[in-house]
Amino acid sequence: MQCLSSQNDAPQFKNGLDAVKWMDGKLVAAPHGACTDRFARWAFEQAGIKPKKYLNMNIEVITSSFKNNKLDAAVIWEPTASKIQLQGLARRAAQARVFMV
């Protein structure tokens, strides 16, 4: 399951599309070549947005970047999304299945 995670200070989103639209002009990361990357690119296209930078990061670097406030959002999978949220580093903005409804 792909999850869209965002900084804790990001606004509350009504739905997955709003979460993706918020990523326009932001620093977003995903492990490129993974299913999360394919979903992210599809979601960006559907929402008509372009992140400021779409970074290729592995899960460890994404976690570290959230910890150091160097990333606005990421597209990741479980259980990493829950671990990052439980550590208070970021929060879940949406899930792929919700975005596609």
Q: Indicate the structural class.
A: alpha/beta
Which CATH architecture?
Answer: 3-Layer(aba) Sandwich
Using only CA atoms, what is the Rg?
12 Å
Percent of sequence in beta strands: 15-25%
- For the largest sheet, list the strands in their spatial order: 3-2-4-1-5
The main pleated sheet reads as: 5 strands, mixed
Helical content stands at 25-40%
In CATH terms, what is the fold-level topology? Answer: D-Maltodextrin-Binding Protein, domain 2
Oligomeric assembly: single chain
State the low-pLDDT regions, or none: none
The CATH class, by name, is: Alpha Beta
Counting DSSP H or I runs of 4 or more residues, the number of helices is 5
Number of strands: 5
Helix-strand pattern: EHEHEHEHEH
Broad shape: globular
Write down the overall mean pLDDT: 89
**What do we call the CATH homologous superfamily?**
Periplasmic binding protein-like II
Task: State the separation between the terminal residues, measured CA to CA.
Answer: 14 Å
Summarize, please.
This protein is α/β, with parallel strands linked by helices. Helices cover 40% and strands 23% of the residues.
Question: Could you walk me through the main structural features you see in this protein, from its secondary elements to its overall organization?
Answer:
The chain is α/β, with parallel strands linked by helices and 101 residues long. It has one domain (2-99): Periplasmic binding protein-like II (D-Maltodextrin-Binding Protein, domain 2, 3-Layer(aba) Sandwich), CATH 3.40.190.10. Helix content is 40%, strand content 23%. It starts with a strand and ends with a helix. Strands 3-2-4-1-5 form a 5-stranded mixed beta sheet, with helices on both faces. The model has no long low-confidence stretch (mean pLDDT 89). The protein has helices spanning 16-22, 35-47, 59-67, 80-86, 96-99; strands at residues 2-6, 27-30, 53-56, 73-77, 91-95. The chain contains 5 helices and 5 strands.
